[in-house]
Amino acid sequence: VPETGSFSRQYKQEPFEQAPMYVAVMTYLGFGIVTLFGYFRDFLRAVGLEKCHLAQEREEQKDFVPLYQDFENFYTRNLYMRVRDNWNRPVCSLPGPVFDLMERVSDDYNWTFRFTGRTLHNVINMGSYNYLGFAENAAESLKTVADTTLQYGVGVCSTRHEIGNLSIHQELEELVASFLGVESSMTFGMGFATNSMNIPALVGKGCLILSDELNHTSLILGADCLRTIRVFKHNNMHSLEKMLREAVYSGQPRTHRPWKKILIMVEGIYSMEGSVVRLAEIVALKKKYKAYLYLDEAHSIGAVGPSGRGVTELFGVNPADVDVMMGTFTKSFGAAGGYIAGRKELVDYLRVHSHSAVYATALSPPVTEQILRAMKCIMGKDGSTEGIRRIRQLAENTRYFRARLKEMGFIIYGNDHSPVVPILLYMPGKVVAFAREMLERKIGVVVVGFPATPITEARARFCLSAGHTRALLDQVLHHLNEVGDNLCLKFSRRKHQLTNPTRSDETDS
């Protein structure tokens, strides 16, 4: 694990290797072909020659107002439905390093599914955000969570402002503030809503939001309350500074009055690219232009830093330099919900003005207990070194897995410290074939394509965990190597050499 601040001195912009030109051409050609066949199938449906009638609108609904755009409907019925067996697979066990899947088949080209009654056992889980492996059936943890459930119940059926404010909620908020090194924090029952429902309370008329182009949907939704949003290129400090300089110089449109507030919104680790925010440089720009910084650490808290305290620790940045620290408990902590942390004045303001604080039900007591146990383990407050061991194991797994993939010749995105590892697949047919081939080899993966990604950047996203053993990773890598050869997925033209990826080149802490 790199020592605090050393990462900032050695940080380099993540290289996003481009595929050969023929790959882009074949990708567009593939989408073009399936689109043409889609129009042809729509014609067959119109003349009554299509056997499957589930894609046709029912007579009693033809005068209804459309819920979706025409192209969205077209894409769903003609492209997505053909391959949707690769998504939403039902899990019937604990989603740890390995899990069980319910087998299902379709008799109508994926319009409907039926279960066979069989179970796929011991599928290696490479898709869950279980970074520190706390999605587990540890006996001691189960007992304390069960005791909490007996004492408080499953839910409080009230907001924090009424009768839903429990002692364990206050204990958790104090622990989160201590863990992050800030004055205060508050928790929420849903990670997505922590962004989407709190950002509107932080900005208003006369404010400007500068948002990274790859920010999560929850950030974008929260920022949509404000019309004055400008998007800068991903992790591009020149683009950000240009917008900051223009905002300070020109002020608001038409009136040219100074902006009341300029808020920069970034993520710690970007969940689709695996890239790490250039935090030290952003903090410097924020101070230079007197802006505010909103940092979403949903994927980075617990997963990076010598003691799991996220990108502020990784870069050696003072947490006080980040105005709004946001994170979720759904990844590294094996639970649910999210938090906002920072100065006491900020948290006190949000307790009164945040929709998520005023109207939402308080965090479930057993979930709160799970977060408390996981965080105490990470901090060593349980009297063990298990938390640090997990953090170091995750870092080791990340370095090893990324180095092996590069050696094999795959194009991967992201930073070497990021446990989110995207492998670029590009072509729609290869995306589908890859997911099916991996499942046949009892490896569960997440594949993502257009419109969630640009047309030419479809990918498989692997999420590493401290729960993955070296034997499990080697098994996955072995099958990846075979599938990569069979499907011709090794597009990288760079030469990589595997050089002892199990240890960091930086000082261990």
From TrEMBL:
The chain crosses the membrane at residues 20-40. Its cofactor is pyridoxal 5'-phosphate. GO terms for cellular component: endoplasmic reticulum membrane; serine palmitoyltransferase complex. Its main location: endoplasmic reticulum. It is a single-pass membrane protein. The keyword Acyltransferase applies. Its EC number is 2.3.1.50. Residues 122-480 form the Aminotransferase class I/classII large domain. One of its GO terms (molecular function) is serine C-palmitoyltransferase activity. Coiled coil: none annotated. Keywords: Acyltransferase, Endoplasmic reticulum, Lipid metabolism, Membrane, Pyridoxal phosphate, Sphingolipid metabolism, Transferase, Transmembrane, Transmembrane helix. It is found in: Endoplasmic reticulum membrane. It comes from the Eukaryota. Pathway: Lipid metabolism; sphingolipid metabolism; Sphingolipid metabolism. Belongs to the class-II pyridoxal-phosphate-dependent aminotransferase family. This is serine C-palmitoyltransferase. It comes from Tetraodon nigroviridis (Spotted green pufferfish).
